[in-house]
């Protein structure tokens, strides 16, 4: 028996990939459906959370219910964004979200993303007995990290001194190496996504085997419609 | 027009078509290229095997959506299988909207009952918690107030034996996080590692690796699993080859393809530049 969900999955995967050929209706259908489904899913999850919160603690007493109502009203102020006259109301929930978000992050950012890194850098030994690679790695870390930090020091005459030019050069090479590494990992990620979907399309276990048939059929139909349309339009357009 | 000009002005669709060929061919005809085990995979395996002890409370967090599944799902499945071979308590929660969807898919491949895990006693699902980092902070301060009902049965957390003694971030022994971005490890560091000292291991997509390395070097992260290839190595260490192993040939061929394109593109660019 044909599992329609597999065919739907294959259709939308190929429809999204069809943008590689050119902009086309298959892609636009898939793009719109994806946006609609993703937003619907997110709203559903959020509403479930609100419902659970109400049942869990906020409906337990009159005072809690009142607080819940206030919070809901503040939440509804987000929708002021859609009306010019009520736009100012939207700034209240925005201010609360930004304020609490920054406050929550700043509480510990100095420890987790500043002091811990400085301590780690200071504790990195130049030499690791019996491990040449670790020694080289640590020496590079001890040279490169301060160089990059100094690269972003923009004030004072010392900035133009000869030693600083050397430091700048080391820093530039360091950053180039970092960007190259990031690019390589980005290629890995993009291809991993593509490989994952390809495994689905080819029905490689534990993906359903039916997907391969759906892949061949739907890919043929999509390519035929797009290439056929292009050939038809080319024929219709008189040559100059 | 010379051949170099043709390369410079090549229709991008030929490049895409070749990309399909380089990926689909090794998937259809596995090349069986050797997969050496890296230190990253070994550290991850050793940590789960030796550092997570029986009875530990593990916060298992799929912090990604369906778009991150091709790269992160194999390692999520493999780690869950590894964890379930031990006698730990697993709390599944996500601060990404699609986290529960990812975990639903995981349950089609990993049946906790096969490992003797009983829902509510040995493991529990708390679903999705909206609010990003603020919610993570709230979760650490008071789990029972932040999540009032479990995801599967909709019952109060207090009614589950597994949650009786787990009330704040202090009661979590280790965080196992798989993530594609924000909120992710930086937020866990700020909301759990800094205030509670909770150890953490993170599986991430390749793009995020550069940002994760400092946490690993500082010892804030205990292990890092960067991307699909290390996932494959981990599957081999576990002796449970899965989707990552099946895809690693295609990773190799696709990277060869990109490298060839970069070399060819540079040759064509510099030679036509000289001609100009």
Task: Summarize the model shown.
With 240 residues, chain A is an all-alpha fold.
Task: Please give a handful of descriptors for the protein shown.
A: 240 residues; mainly alpha; 78% helix; extended; B: 276 residues; alpha/beta; Rossmann fold; 6-stranded parallel β-sheet
Could you name the ranges of chain B where pLDDT drops below 50 across 5 or more consecutive residues?
Answer: none
Amount of beta strand of chain B: 5-15%
Largest interface: A-B, 51 and 63 residues
Oligomer: heterodimer
Q: What percentage of residues of chain B falls in helices of 4 or more residues?
A: 40-55%
Number of helices of chain A: 7
Report the sheet with the most strands of chain B, covering strand number, pairing sense and barrel closure: 6 strands, parallel
Helix/strand-derived category of chain B reads alpha/beta
Radius of gyration of chain B: 22 Å
What is the count of structural domains of chain A?
3
Globally, the shape of chain A reads: extended
Termini of chain A, distance in Å? 53 Å
Mean pLDDT across every amino acid position of chain B: 93
The helicity of chain A comes to over 70%
Structural account:
With 240 residues, chain A is an all-alpha fold. Chain A has three domains: 1-52 and 210-240, no CATH class; 55-123, no CATH class; 131-201, no CATH class. Chain A has helices at 4-17, 25-58, 62-76, 87-123, 132-151, 162-201, 210-236. By secondary structure, chain B is an alpha/beta fold. Chain B has two domains: 3-30 and 250-275; 39-241, Rossmann fold (3-Layer(aba) Sandwich). Chain B is built from eleven helices and six strands. In chain B, helix 2 (12-28) packs antiparallel against helix 11 (243-275) and helix 10 (227-238) packs antiparallel against helix 11. Chain B is elongated. The model of chain B has no long low-confidence stretch (mean pLDDT 93). Classes of the chains: A mainly alpha (240), B alpha/beta (276). Chains A and B meet through helix 2, helix 4 and helix 6 of A and helix 2, helix 4, helix 6, helix 8 and helix 9 of B.
């Amino acid at each position: 028996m044909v599992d329609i969900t597999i065919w739907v999955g294959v259709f939308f995967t190929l429809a999204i990939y069809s943008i590689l050929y050119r902009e086309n209706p298959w892609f636009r259908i898939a793009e719109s459906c994806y946006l609609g489904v993703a937003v619907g899913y997110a709203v559903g999850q959020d509403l479930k959370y609100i419902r659970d919160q109400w049942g869990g603690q906020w409906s337990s007493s009159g005072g809690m219910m009142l607080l819940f109502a206030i919070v809901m009203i503040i939440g509804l102020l987000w929708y002021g964004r859609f009306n010019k006259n009520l736009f100012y109301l939207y700034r209240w929930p925005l201010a609360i979200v930004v304020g609490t978000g920054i406050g929550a992050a700043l509480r510990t950012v100095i420890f987790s993303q500043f002091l811990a890194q400085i301590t780690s850098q200071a504790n990195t030994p130049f030499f690791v007995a019996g491990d040449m690679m670790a020694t080289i790695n640590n020496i590079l870390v001890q040279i490169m990290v301060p160089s990059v930090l100094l690269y972003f020091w923009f004030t004072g005459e010392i900035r133009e001194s000869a030693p600083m030019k050397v430091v700048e050069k080391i820093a530039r090479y360091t950053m180039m190496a970092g960007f190259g590494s990031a690019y390589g990992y980005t290629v890995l990620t993009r291809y991993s996504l593509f490989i994952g979907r390809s495994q689905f399309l080819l029905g490689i276990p534990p993906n359903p085997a039916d997907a391969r048939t759906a892949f061949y059929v739907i890919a043929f139909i999509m390519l035929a419609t797009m290439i056929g349309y292009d050939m038809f339009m080319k024929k219709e357009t008189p040559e100059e | 027009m010379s051949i170099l000009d043709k390369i410079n002005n090549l229709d991008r669709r030929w490049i895409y078509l070749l990309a399909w060929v380089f990926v689909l061919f090794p998937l259809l005809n596995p090349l069986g290229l050797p997969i050496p085990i890296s230190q990253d995979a070994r550290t991850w395996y050793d940590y789960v095997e030796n550092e997570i002890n029986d009875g530990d409370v593990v916060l298992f967090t799929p912090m990604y959506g369906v778009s991150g599944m091709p790269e992160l799902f194999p390692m999520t499945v493999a780690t869950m299988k590894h964890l379930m071979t031990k006698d730990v308590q697993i709390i599944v929660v996500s601060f990404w909207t699609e986290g529960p969807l990812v975990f639903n898919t995981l349950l089609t491949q990993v049946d906790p009952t096969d490992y003797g895990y009983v829902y509510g006693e040995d493991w529990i699902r708390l679903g999705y918690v909206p609010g990003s980092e603020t919610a993570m902070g709230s979760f650490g301060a008071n789990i029972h107030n932040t999540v009032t009902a479990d995801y599967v049965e909709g019952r109060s957390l207090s009614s589950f034996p597994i949650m009786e003694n787990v009330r704040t971030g202090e009661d979590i022994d280790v965080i196992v996080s798989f993530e594609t971005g924000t909120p992710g490890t930086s937020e866990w560091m700020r909301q759990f590692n800094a205030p509670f000292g909770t150890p953490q291991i993170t599986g991430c997509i390749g793009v995020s690796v550069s940002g994760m390395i400092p946490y690993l070097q500082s010892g804030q992260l205990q292990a890092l699993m960067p991307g699909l290839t290390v996932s494959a190595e981990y599957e081999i260490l576990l002796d449970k080859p899965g989707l990552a192993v099946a895809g690693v040939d295609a990773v190799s061929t696709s990277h060869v393809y990109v490298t060839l394109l970069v070399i060819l593109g540079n040759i064509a660019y510099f030679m036509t530049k000289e001609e100009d």
